[in-house]
């Protein structure tokens, strides 16, 4: 049986310090070799220490991840673009025909709860469910 090409997923949010990083980590964790997952922000900033911490709690180490600014080559080469926040809609490049455009409106727990770790855990769990559903929807074994 021929192996399918991995699905390329690009997770985008404004700063690439929390939500899109978590989504990238879960896509890699569950999708394994069937997924090439990357994340970026319209602005690059540092990954928030609490983001690293809430992922470590469930055994996923993202301490070596870096915050990236959106890259148009990666954007155009993706099969799926996932926007994790509403404010991205106006500011994000238009997703071309043929690329699946997914919108998840997930509040930034760092902004809306002053970095309360409980809020980050809730966001992490919400993103985990969404990533699993996304992968299943694309017939990626999880």
TrEMBL record:
Family matches, as Pfam families: LMWPc
Organism: Paenibacillus phytorum
InterPro entries found in the cross-reference section: Ptyr_pPase, Ptyr_pPase_sf
Entry keyword set: Arsenical resistance
Record CDD domains: LMWP_ArsC (cd16345)
Entry protein name: Arsenate reductase (Thioredoxin)
Domain Phosphotyrosine protein phosphatase I: 7-137
